[in-house]
């Protein structure tokens, strides 16, 4: 397995001197996955003691430790599965094939028991993805009207999260609006533009998102402070909320040819390139302690150490 080259510290025109402290502090090292048993789309647990990964086509879920040990926790579709705030459960949109029709339901996996619980009925359409409420007591689903559908998870409200629930975002995988889980108020920062990969900041006061066919943005929870970070995909926040890491790609109109990782200050004042290799470095996820980025090349999950 190849190791990534260290990032070339090539500054964008607006790079500030203090931003030069953020860089890769060593080569990325392979963690888990191979050509025969690929893993991708890894996401850190809230405590940083595990990563949740899936196949490149989102088939199945695996738990991977930072030491590289892995175990499968689900078979079947696992698109955009999400950790609970306390890291003990997984929320996802489950699929089943019913003849020619594919149905969907909101599902929760308890990691201790391995039990899967359906929180909703099976339905023919589910255009958005379920998300946890900030306190973990509910699964939230954005309806086409912009209203929020709520499902009780049966889990105790987690200490330390109740105070943040009023600022929680409900996120749609694609659509033109996000919604506040507290007020059900729609947020459409780019008018009718379709929004992708909506990702709340750690304090849930800001939102990073992509515009379909456009750039990567950050906006405040009240819709103010819209900031254009330039071209970027798959945003992930640093734990202190100061940086947004993402990937930039090149393609020939049919397939991806190259991808590298970058980080920008959330206020748009600085940009750093973190990887500079000939292959694909995709789908970053920032560790809770801020010291590593997990990413993949479509087959293997890597850890890139960071220094700030």
UniProtKB/TrEMBL annotation:
InterPro entries: 6-blade_b-propeller_TolB-like, WD40. It comes from the Bacteria. Coiled coil: none annotated. Belongs to the TolB family. This is Dipeptidylpeptidase IV N-terminal domain-containing protein. It comes from Rubricoccus marinus.
């Amino acid at each position: 397995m190849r190791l990534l080259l260290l990032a070339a510290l090539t500054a964008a025109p607006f790079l500030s001197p203090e931003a030069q402290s953020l860089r890769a502090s060593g080569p990325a090292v392979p963690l888990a996955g191979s050509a025969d048993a690929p893993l991708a789309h890894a996401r850190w647990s809230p405590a940083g003691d595990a990563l949740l990964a899936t196949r490149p086509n989102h088939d199945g879920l695996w738990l991977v430790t930072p030491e590289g040990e892995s175990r499968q926790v689900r078979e079947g579709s696992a698109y955009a599965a999400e950790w609970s705030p306390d890291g003990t459960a997984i929320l996802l949109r489950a699929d089943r094939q019913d003849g020619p029709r594919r149905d969907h339901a909101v599902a929760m996996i308890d990691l201790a028991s391995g039990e899967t619980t359906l929180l909703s009925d099976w339905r023919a359409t589910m255009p958005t993805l379920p998300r946890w409420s900030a306190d973990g007591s509910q699964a939230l689903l954005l309806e086409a009207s912009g209203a929020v559908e709520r499902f009780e998870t049966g889990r105790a409200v987690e200490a330390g999260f109740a105070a943040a629930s009023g600022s929680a975002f409900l996120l749609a995988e694609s659509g033109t609006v996000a919604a506040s889980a507290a007020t059900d108020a729609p947020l459409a920062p780019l008018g009718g533009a379709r929004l992708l990969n909506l990702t709340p900041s750690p304090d849930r006061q800001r939102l990073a998102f992509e515009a379909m066919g456009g750039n990567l943005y950050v906006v405040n929870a009240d819709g103010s402070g819209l900031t254009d970070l330039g071209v970027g995909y798959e945003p992930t926040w640093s734990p202190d909320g100061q940086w947004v890491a993402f990937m930039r790609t090149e393609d020939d109109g049919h397939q991806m040819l190259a991808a590298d990782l970058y980080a920008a200050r959330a206020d748009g004042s600085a940009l750093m390139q973190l990887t500079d290799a000939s292959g694909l470095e995709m789908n970053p996820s920032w560790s809770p302690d801020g010291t590593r980025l997990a990413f993949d090349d479509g087959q293997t999950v890597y850890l890139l150490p960071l220094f700030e």
